[in-house]
Amino acid sequence: MRSNSRILVKLLKRHSHTATPSSRFSTPPPHEVVEPFYDLSDVVVSASRDPPSPSPWLPQILSLLDGSPSMESNLTSFCNKFLITLSPNFVSHILRSLTNQPLLATRFFHWAHSQPSYSHSLHSYVSLIETLSFSSSFDSTVFQNILQEFRCRKFKLTAAAVNSLLRSFAAVGMVEELLWMWRNMKEDGLEPSLYNFNSLMNGLVNAGMVESAVRVFEAMREVNVRPDSVSYNTVIKGYCKVGKTRKALEMIREMEAGDDGDNVGPDKVSYMTVMQACYGEGDVDCCVRLYHEMKEKGLVVPPHAYSLVVCGLCRQGKVVEGLNVFEEMRRDSCGANKAVYTALIDGYAKTGNVDGAMRLFERMRQEGIKPDEVTYGAIVNGLCKGGRVEEALGYLEFCKENGVMVNAVFYSSLIDGLGKAGRVDEAEKLFYEMVDKGCPPDSYCYNALIDGWCKGGRIDEALALFKRMEEEGCEQTVYTYTILISELFKVHRNEEALKLWDMMIDKGITPNVACFRALSIGLCLSGKVARACKILDELAPMGIVLETAYEDMINVLCKAGRVKEACKLADGIVDRGREIPGKVRTLMINALRKAGNADLAIRLMHSKIGIGYDRMRSVKKRVKFQTLIG
Fold this sequence. Notes:
By secondary structure, the chain is mainly alpha-helical. The protein is built from 34 helices and four strands. The protein has helices at residues 4-19, 43-46, 57-64, 71-81, 88-96, 102-113, 122-133, 140-153, 159-171, 175-187, 194-206, 210-222, 229-241, 245-257, 268-281, 284-296, 303-315, 319-331, 338-350, 354-366, 373-385, 389-401, 408-420, 424-436, 443-455, 459-471, 478-490, 494-506, 513-525, 529-539, 549-559, 563-575, 581-594, 598-605; strands spanning 32-34, 84-86, 613-616, 619-622. Pfam families: PPR, PPR_2, PPR_3.
């Protein structure tokens, strides 16, 4: 076969000859139509040897597509200079070469259309539509304009064009265009293939029309087109996309059963799609079950599946199980990645095993896996929780010096650790350093510093930070209010504490057990037991049931030696019918014992108080708890 370079030289010589004044031609010769592949006339002869070689004009034309303002005029000059006219096939080939360059593709398409003796074919339109639809910078306006032109041309469709167009429309979830193509395909006498059905379903799923995709799936069998693994996996993807993970699992079971003679077993794509959905929903147990199914069936478990299982188990606090899966991963010659190591390090750190986390961290580095800011954040969090603040600060300096981004979680862990260590001024300094670096503090960070101020007895600084938190639009959580309410009661600023409680309720923040405990303890110790009970009663219609609220109040009153008030509260509980007397009696005995008042606890244990009755004439009256103290 002749070389491309020789042909290009020959063409250049021809151009040189036609350009000389002594040429015997009175008019220039006609342009030559060029195809994307060289020497197509010899395809039959050369098919047994090598595939056709690309045209020498391809790199020349592609080099001119530079996006400059003069790009179109440069293309025209080049074609005129070398007397060439591009064929529709050549244009299609160029367009398919411009993946992720939609603007260049569109400009080239319009330029080609403006050239004399040229007209776009079905395949040049199809090529541009495919290039635009799979571009990462998809522009729907440009796409619709091209599509409108295409519709007006009323081309007779081919099977190859239909396949490409359905795939393109499916990629961007354009349902109307998909259905239009489906109708036109049938009008042109083309029967839908399995590939066509799969493309249609994929488009419907991408557009969120999962039930329609399921109906198409069911219709396939009616026209004797058997679904393949792609068909099943498309429906599975759809169910997972709309949160119907149970339905997706049913599809896997249907694939296993081979209903209707499909004989299509679930593959790793089927499992991975559902595993990812289960992980996202927090259903780690299902994720782990599917992982074991893959192993039992001999399917190759991809690295991401291991990551999901290890990360999920660590998220549940099952770090040992996570480590076992990690070791399985290594035995299967599947290299551990950064996400898996980070999940294990974080899991060990959160369970208080900082030394275990550090060993994994060193192992990770020895294997050449570079830790990122998330990994360092997990290490710092573990060190701070373990009281090793100085080591954590050392990692902060290391990250700064080595260009590792220090994120909000990183700073928050250090601020929390410094605050708990009583080094609030250093925590405050880090807080403002974080702000100056454009890293907005989150609720956890604010709460850590507020807690530090409160523990240091600096409630006014904590309240100022609380106000700033509100001004910055940072979410104030129930934990934020709990810290401040507890501290305000400790410093006898009861009214301010109650105002904060009311503010929390007005904002729709649901109090938890810890928050009400802070409020009720404060009220009980300040002699406002009735107020605490009233607030507790107000929570019930809101659907907030705090199971241990009365127990907490009785405990704190007994601990403070205010047994009379504790007895009064216990009687009030029984009178309201909120608790059976026996349960309140047990509660009182335990509270007195824990408070060190064993004599009263024994006396209560051997009396009829709370459960017995005294006959007063013809009426039985329950022996009240207040008789305990005479």
